[in-house]
User: Fold this.
Amino acid sequence: MNIYKFELGMLKKSILIWALAIPAFFLFYVSFFPMMSGEGMDTIFEQFPEEFMAFFGMNAELPVSNILGYVALTYGMIQIPMAIQASNYGFHMLSVEERELTADFLLSKPISRTKIMVAKFLAAMTSLTIVNLAICASTILGIIMFRANQAVDWSAVIILLTTNVFFQLFFVSVGMFVSTVVKKVPSVLSLSMGLGIGLYIMSSLGTMLTSTLFHVITPYSHFAPAYILAEASYDWSLAWISFAIIILSLAGSYFFYLRRNIASL
Amino acid sequence: MNIIEFNKLTKYYGDVKGCKDIDFNVKEGEIFGFIGPNGAGKSTTIRTMLSLIYPTSGSVTIFGKDAIEFGPEVRQEIGYLPSEIFYYDKMKVEDLLKYSASFYDKDCTDRLYELAEIMELDLTRKIQDLSLGNKKKVGIVQGLLHRPKLIILDEPTSGLDPLMQKKFFALIKEENTMGATVLFSSHILSEVQQICDRVAIIKDGEIISIQEIKALKEDTYKKFTLKGEDLNDGKFAIDGVSNLLQTDNQVTFFFKGNVNNIIQIASGLNLKDILVEEPTLEEIFMHYYE
Assistant:
C-alpha cells in the first residue's frame, strides 16, 4: 500500500496534465462540428482520393457530416495521446529504479518483487483510469454540446468509451514487457512516442492499403472508432488480438521482472 | 550461531565473473570485514544477499533461511547501506526516511529522529540539494532506523568527513554491542582494522583468505627499517624476509620468524637508526593484492 501511494504521488502532475490536455484537445475539435454538419462538407470530401480519406479514417459508413462520423475521426486522434501516456507509464514504472539508481533502495526493503510490481501497476492503472474518466466525460459533453441537433446512437458511444481501458492496458502492458526484457530503457519518452505514433501510422496504412496484416498488430485497428460507432459493437475479428497481447505481455513482464538481475552503477 | 552462511555462491554476468565459490560464515555479534580492491566482487556478493541479483549457482543463508526464497522475511532484519547512494531526488529527506520506515513491521519513528540528530542531518532539505556526504548520512539513517539484526555496509565511509566517520563507527559499534551483526565491505584497510573482528579478503571474485584481525597483526610480520651506511649488500636476504628494499643508507623489509637472526646481522653493521613496527593491514594485504 505504501508503494502504491508513493507511486501515485509521483504521478500526480502527470495525471493532471493528461486529464486536462486530452479532453481539451477533443472538445476543441468537436466544437468545429456544427460547421461541418451540412451536406456541403460531404461533397467536398468526396473530391479527395479514397486513400487520403482512408488514411484519416474517413471511409467508414459514417460520413463526417454525421456527428458520430465526425467523432470517429476525432476520437482516432485522441487515441494517440492516450497511447503515448499509457506506454509512457508502461516503459517507465519498472525501469525507473534502475535508470535512476534507486533500485538498491527499494528492492532491498522487506517486500517481494511481486508486491512492488502489483503496486506500481495499480498506481499506473489508477492514473490512467482518472484520465480515462475525464475523456469519457468530455466525449459525452462534447457530443451533447456540439451535435447540431442530430440524433445520437448513445449505445455506440458508450461501447466506444469502454474500449479506452483495453486500449490503455495494451500500451501499458507492452511497454512494461519491453522494459523487463531489454537490458536498459534509455529514453522512456522517445520509446512511448514511437510506439504510440508508430502503431497509429500502421493502422492508417492498413486502412489505406486495405491490408489486414497491418490491422492485426495495432490496437488502433482493433478498437477503430469508425467501426465501433457504425456497428455499435466491438470488431471481434480483431479485438481479441489485443486481449491476447495484454495477457501475454502482463504474464511475460511478471516472469522476467521476478528473474531480473538489477544493474547497479 | 551463524548469521550469514555462504555456500559456494557463484555469480557470472554472461561470461564475466562477478564472484566465484564464495564460502564463508559470519557469526552472530561479529563485525566482519570484507576487503578487496574495486571490482573484486564485493558488491556482487552483497547484492546477491539482498536478492538484487540472483546467483548462478550456490546460495546464501541469512538467519538460517535462504536469502532468495525468504527474501522479504529476511530483509525485515537487514539494514543495507549501498555504496553509491541514490534516492528519489525531489523528495524531502524526512519524507524519504518515513517512506523507508513504512516498509518495516515495527514503528521506527523515534529511532529515525534520534539517528538524524546523531548524524546532524537536516530533515527539511530536498535530496537533490544534498552533498555526497549528506546523502551518505541519509543512507546511514535509512539503513539503521529499524534496528536491524544484520547491518550490511558497502563502502560506507566514502564522502564522510573524519569527524562523521568517527561518529558513524561509534554508532556501528553501539549497534554491535546491542547485538547486531555487521558485514563491513571496504577497500580502505585502516578502517576495517579499526572496527572488525575478522576479515575475508576477496580478489578477482574469489575469497583468498579469511583471518582474525588480531592474529593477522600479531603473529605475522614485523616491518624493519634500518638506517646507516654501506647497507646495500644483500645481507638481509635471508629466510623469512620479504619485500626487501635496499639503498646505500636505508634498508626496509618485512620479517616473519626468529627476530634474533635479524639482530645478529644488524649487530655487525654501523647503524644510525633502527625502527621495528607492526605493518599496517594495507602492507600485509599487498601480498594478496599482487
Remarks:
- The radius of gyration of chain B is 23 Å.
